[in-house]
Amino acid sequence: MNCDEAQLALLDLEVNSNVDAHVSTCDACRQFAQIQRELDARLTAAIPPLELSPKFAVQLRPHSRWTWSESLPDIAHLIGCAAAMGTLAFVFPQYAKEVATAGSALTAGTWFLQAILRDRLEPDG
Amino acid sequence: MDDDVQQLLRKKRYNEALEHLLAQYGTKVFRMAVAFLKDPARAEEITQDIFLKLWRALPDYDGRAAPGTWLYTIARNTCLSASRSESYRKTFPLEQAVEPSTALAKSDLQLAQYLDRLPDIQRTVITLFYLEEKQVGEVAAALGMPAGTVKSHLHRARLALAAMMKE
User: Between 20 and 30 A from A116 (CA), which of A13, A122, B59, B136?
Assistant: First the structure.
């Protein structure tokens, strides 16, 4: 094993008898190995494997669950529009067709506006 | 494990799929975020963001990539964008820059300063390597690069750090 091969193995943190044999006979590689081992020990001590805190999953779950209550504004909007259209059609039966057309268009338009507004108001993340 | 998640996604059982992904990749994604952002508390917030993004995107999963690979892509993009916005917010005059930002290595202030002097990719790779208990394969999967490239960045980082130690 030559110096290049030994130093490459040391950079890969390989431990084998060939590297040890070379390092024991070569001053340059011994110094190189000493510095790399010291560096590895310092990095290992300074960067311990971290784990997520136990509260992580608890905090995430409520956000990630879909609940029917999230659709409550849409449901209320549709019921409100349908009720208004029904009332108008009942009071002015002669304009029932116009009420249905205009009411549907208004429902769709306000649904989009509501979706845009909700998107803007929703906090990031 | 990824196969189980794919099956759950095909059956539209998104809650269970998320639970599986969280159990398998939660810590790995968190460690990636730590390597990018250097601050464990901020990294945990970003990990929340990543899993929420994933949750919202689960119905659009098309099965082309493994769920883990897909998650890592979302995680990398989120970490990169968070890291860019953090460095933008933290811009301050050079004379005030006395404290190293590598919060993880605060126990060894000198090493923290050395790590801060490395190019971003080398610092990220070497930090993640130690966070992932020295597994090159895990680092490669998380960063979406070949194992050989990870090794090459590790070699350069080690040589640079050794040179700084000798200064």
Answer: B59
Of B115, B152, B146, the residue nearest B131 (C-alpha): B115
A46 vs B45, B104, B165: nearest CB: B104
Chain B: give the shortest CA distance to residue A11, in Å: 6
Q: Closest to A125 (Cβ–Cβ): which among B48, B131, B155?
A: B48
The ipTM assigned to this model is: 0.81
Same domain (yes/no): B155, B75: no
Query: Do A101 and A72 lie in a common domain?
Result: yes
Label each residue of B117-143 as H, E or C. Answer: HCCHHHHHHHHHHHHCCCCHHHHHHHH
Same domain, A41 and A76: no
pLDDT digits (tens, 9 = 90+) for B41-82: 899 999 999 999 998 888 888 888 888 889 999 999 999 999
The total of structural domains in chain A comes to 2
Q: Is there a single domain that holds both residue B63 and residue B27?
A: yes
Domain with B47 in it: 1-91
pTM of this structure: 0.70
